[in-house]
Amino acid sequence: MNTKVILALLLCFLLVASNEMQVAEAKVCQRRSKTWSGPCINTGNCSRQCKQQEDARFGACHRSGFGFACFCYFKC
């Protein structure tokens, strides 16, 4: 086989493989924590509570209104 043909086929294979990998990525949805009370100051504590009490993948403090609230992230 010609080298150019082999390179073209390899390039096509890589393009198809990269598109398939993008489809396989899981989307993450957020919602305000149902178990957190008070202002959210420490993202580590928020994330720990989201994982342990709400079965979330992780959590983080984000601005909500005039303060900060704990938001949990789940696989959609």
Describe the 3D structure.
This protein has 76 residues and is of the alpha+beta class. The chain has one domain (3-75): 2-Layer Sandwich (Defensin A-like). It has 2 helices and 3 strands, in the order H-E-H-E-E. Strands 1-3-2 form a 3-stranded antiparallel β-sheet. The model has no long low-confidence stretch (mean pLDDT 83). This is Knottins-like domain-containing protein. It is found in: Secreted. Its main location: secreted.
Provide the fold topology:
Layout: H1 3-23, E1 28-32, H2 43-54, E2 58-64, E3 67-75
Order of strands in the sheet with the most strands? Answer: 1-3-2
Q: Which CATH-level-2 architecture?
A: 2-Layer Sandwich
Figure out the total of helices: 2
Percent range for β-strand residues: 25-35%
The tally of domains stands at 1
